[in-house]
Amino acid sequence: MHPGINDREMHQCLAALGIPPEDIGGIMRRPRFIQKYTEIKLRDQGVRLSTPPQTRFQPKSKQEIEDDKKKYTAIRMLAPSPILKISRRAQILNLDFDRAKRESGLTRPISLEGHYVEIGLSQDFSQTPLSGLRPIEISRMQAHRTHKGYYLLCRVVSKAAPLGENVFSTVEDPTGLVISACFNRLPGLARTQENWDELDLVFPHGALFAIREPRVEASTGAVPIGLLVVDSPSDIVWLKSSDPTLRGVTWSFPDPTNATWRKTANQWKSLGNSYFTSGKHFASAIAYTKGLEVTPTAYLLTLNRAASYLHLEYFRAALTDATTVSALQDISSDEKLKALYRIAQAEYGLARYEAASHHFQECLSLSPAYIPVERWVARCSQRIRESGAGDYDWAHILGEAHNTGKKLDVAEFTGPIKVGMSPRGGRGMVTTRDVKAGELLLVSKPFTIAFPHEFVNTHRILTANCITLQPEGPCRHALIDRTVTKIAGNPELYELVTALYAGPSFSAPSPDFPPVLSSPSAKLSNPLQVEVDIDTLLIEHICTYNAFYLKDATRLDGYSTDKERFDAPSALYLLPSLFNHACSANTIWYNFGDVMVVRAAKDLAEGEELTLSYLADPKHVPYATRKTELAKHMSQCDCEECEADRNDGEEFCGRRAFYLARLRSMAEISLDAARTLVRSMEENYAPSRGPIRPESSQARSNLVEILADAARELPSLGPEVIAEGIKALEAAGIVVLDRTVSVEVSEVELAKSEDEVGLPIRTSSAPTYDVDMCVRVMLRMASVFHMGRDMKMAKRWLDAARWGMLILSIPLALILPGADRSCSRV
Ligand SMILES: C[S@@+](CC[C@H](N)C(=O)[O-])C[C@H]1O[C@@H](n2cnc3c(N)ncnc32)[C@H](O)[C@@H]1O
């Protein structure tokens, strides 16, 4: 049911905007309207924007990535060879000197331009617990070899320094031999800047750890020396001096621990607090943990660490710490209150809103002067409504989503959908009942996400993806790191993430999702210690095959250049990853801030498979581009649109792509040129092609806008605007029920009551891309009818436009102030 705007309301809207009622077309020129209109990128007035100036952008070519891949694969295949013994003193001095130069700014850190890191290359991770391994000394290790069955016991003897995404340090074994070590994907450390103090906290002189099944490579250079390469952070087992592994071990050199790191629990607490107040939450959690190692009963450190974990979104660990403190008998009421508050926040973070609400209310008994309990309880109630019934305040969400990179405070919602089997074979998503077009199916928050503004003026790490042989931007790279970090802090999530599809080189995941957990999940005991064995290569594959580029609902113009795509925000979502693809999908999805919203684009029967488009662009993409973009997923997409394009043939598709590129690059276009472009598009479809003609729809909608502008001076053009509008909509896949083009008000029409007059289009199916374009066409048609005083038709097309906006989850009321707000939900 799509409630209509009646004449009185429409006039109210116009009055609110100060628009003379005789010119609904003028609505589109009003600043307030334009502001809203532009914000959601319904392009105003048909003015074509020329392409923004290009910045320097040189992505690695496929060939270059292939060469890198060959090179590294060849190195990996080298036969094991002895490693050179190096001078302990020289090695330590070397790294310390390098670090001192970088820290003092004597050497430029690393170019901001970005450097490439290869992903998808062979790498190791150990799955054998330390207790099942034997110690090995550096003297017995070989280059180009993974020392299966062994561990290296070592301690840090030089300052650590980041290099690109890695951290380098020097470690010694008990015999006093040293080796350079390169640690990859260390969780918690921001790799885009050089956080010296955090690095020193993680790798202080004398830090003790064992490396499970270590791999040694030989560094390049005049004299190849051994380089310990730790691909997975879970291979590092941090050791306390009391650890049984160290029993009977004697070290040839004195303990290099710097006296400044010998602190009391209270001193660690102060250090932790100073990190916390400067926003270094990972460092603060480490400091509190070190304090607890000194005095395990110093419960205030546990309480403070819960706060650090909340900021890091390590919610289970926060809950454990806060619960431990709240159960203590002899704590003050303020400490009890803090513990309860942190329990409630952790429950909220874990999306257990009933429990969170209960704990927030529990705080009330303890005079919570500084806790906005009522606001929290209201937030919980709102989240319960959202997750239970899909009842969202879309107007508020849209407002919030305008802040780039905003993480929205909303609950996830799973509508009438479930994981099932795809008719294609394998897993997919299916409906659990009949569904109407426009219905909300899924609201999903990202597992991990990265926005481009996070990498402005910082070192940009780019990816040479050796799985796809494509270059990827800083967001895609950061996504992998962030996924590893999230797992490190929430080890129970590892099995969930690794139940996603990982490409053909990994075995197919089990059909169950969420998976049945194989063992009681691991718990975080120490922010440094990774408690699950992380297969970093698997994570790289999972991110490669499942990450989405965001489609921002407030910026529907997509990524018009390769550079924009390269820099696009990227996210890993769990349930959305289980949808199979179709270019002409039966669902439509958009992002509001970090949240992904999926709606049905068609009426669907119970049990029908749901598809969504993996394509990054919310606009139509020509066949050849789609094929390239989808190459990593499938050799050929079998959706209706691709079938139709293949039937048209390469030549027709190629020409249409050429005309489309021309259309999109033109800043201005004359009426004659617009008409010619429509003809050219139409000539390049095979006679057998059905009514859905996406490129033609683009050309026609362009013509509609130019005609509509001209019709203001020349009202006789009105019927042509409507006729072209109908064709544009039909070519986009919309079924038009009322083909009235005459702008004269007929007696029959006037005699019809409001109830008899439905929408002029069928609402059982919507286009899954270019919806904004269709809305724009409908608004133009409404404006022409309005100019001809046919208020009924104007209103009907306005309602149709509103339906289109609802498909985008954007209420038309937002751009037409004064219109009723009941349309904010579908
Ligand atoms: C992100 S997964 C999709 C869900 C997957 N079936 C699962 O079990 O999680 C992507 C993979 O599904 C398969 N797939 C999805 N859509 C497809 C399509 N239209 N044609 C062929 N394969 C498709 C491809 O193997 C693709 O790499």
TrEMBL record:
<dbReference type="InterPro" id="IPR019734">
    <property type="entry name" value="TPR_rpt"/>
</dbReference>
<protein>
    <recommendedName>
        <fullName>SET domain-containing protein</fullName>
    </recommendedName>
</protein>
<dbReference type="InterPro" id="IPR046341">
    <property type="entry name" value="SET_dom_sf"/>
</dbReference>
<dbReference type="InterPro" id="IPR011990">
    <property type="entry name" value="TPR-like_helical_dom_sf"/>
</dbReference>
<dbReference type="InterPro" id="IPR053209">
    <property type="entry name" value="Gramillin-biosynth_MTr"/>
</dbReference>
<dbReference type="InterPro" id="IPR001214">
    <property type="entry name" value="SET_dom"/>
</dbReference>
<keyword id="KW-0802">TPR repeat</keyword>
<dbReference type="Pfam" id="PF00856">
    <property type="entry name" value="SET"/>
</dbReference>
<feature type="repeat" description="TPR">
    <location>
        <begin position="337"/>
        <end position="370"/>
    </location>
</feature>
<feature type="domain" description="SET">
    <location>
        <begin position="415"/>
        <end position="615"/>
    </location>
</feature>
